[in-house]
């Protein structure tokens, strides 16, 4: 059985057919899906989905492109929700220097604040990193992320960077990008990542794996990511499913 550790079934792209999407995932052996809320609206929807479907586990946090709207009130609300709901991780948090909705110093401050909340609540974190690898690494190192651990979501870097994040106690999660023919560095990373630190995800509705690239992604397609890892590692898909599900369950304390 597969565990899609990062999906956004709480966005508008799934508003019309969420039930059918979840059924297709179950039919493909995807028994668990982590749905990530990243602002007020998507957090509320993630919690609603988790209440409605036993296969869904909520993750909540504040996305770096929303950093400018983070406040003491937002932080207090996040703390209360994590303390009162079965939330398995905090995120996605991090830095995004591609869209640059807010200045770097604002993004870093919100990132650090969320890490400190997660440490206080003893919950792992989920990291968004876009065009900001050096600074993401530095913040995680300075904030001693190894105390709680977490996930480098949709990992797309070299084995050398992978080793640096692994040394901080992070898990490495591969998305549909791994299946792209030109993803040479990511394929190399997937070949050498320690098996007790590897996870799989879709990041639905984004980053659909080959041969569905360019279409709406959905949790059922996480099997294609597992198949790519199996091919790269000389393993069976069943082995990849078992190992990655076990890793996620241990990290999320399920």
TrEMBL record:
Keywords: Hydrolase, Metal-binding. InterPro entries: DNase_TatD-rel_CS, Metal_Hydrolase, TatD-like, TatD/YcfH-like. The keyword Metal-binding applies. One of its GO terms (molecular function) is hydrolase activity. Gene3D superfamilies: Metal-dependent hydrolases (3.20.20.140). It comes from the Bacteria. The keyword Hydrolase applies. This is TatD family hydrolase.
């Amino acid at each position: 059985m597969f565990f899609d550790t990062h999906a956004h079934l709480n966005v508008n792209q799934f508003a019309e057919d969420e039930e059918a999407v979840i059924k297709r995932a179950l039919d493909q052996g995807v028994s668990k899906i982590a749905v990530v809320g990243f602002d007020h609206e998507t957090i509320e929807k993630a919690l609603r989905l988790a209440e409605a479907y036993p296969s869904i586990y909520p993750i909540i946090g504040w996305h770096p492109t929303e950093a400018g709207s983070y406040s003491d009130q937002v932080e207090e609300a996040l703390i209360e929700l994590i303390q009162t709901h079965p939330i398995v991780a905090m995120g996605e948090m991090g830095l995004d220097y591609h869209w640059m909705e807010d200045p770097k110093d604002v993004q870093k401050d919100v990132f650090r604040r969320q890490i400190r909340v997660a440490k206080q609540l003893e919950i792992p974190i989920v990291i968004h990193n876009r065009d900001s690898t050096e600074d993401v690494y530095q913040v995680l190192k300075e904030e001693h992320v190894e105390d709680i651990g977490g996930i480098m979501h949709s990992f797309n870097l070299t084995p050398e960077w992978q080793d640096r994040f692994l040394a901080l106690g992070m898990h490495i999660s591969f998305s549909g990008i791994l299946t792209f023919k030109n993803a040479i560095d990511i394929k190399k990373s997937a070949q050498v990542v320690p098996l007790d630190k590897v996870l799989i995800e879709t990041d639905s509705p984004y980053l659909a794996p080959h041969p569905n690239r360019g279409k709406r992604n959905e949790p059922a397609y996480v099997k294609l990511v597992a198949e790519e890892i199996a091919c790269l590692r000389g393993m069976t898909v069943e082995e990849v499913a078992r190992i990655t599900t076990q890793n996620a369950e241990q990290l999320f304390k399920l």
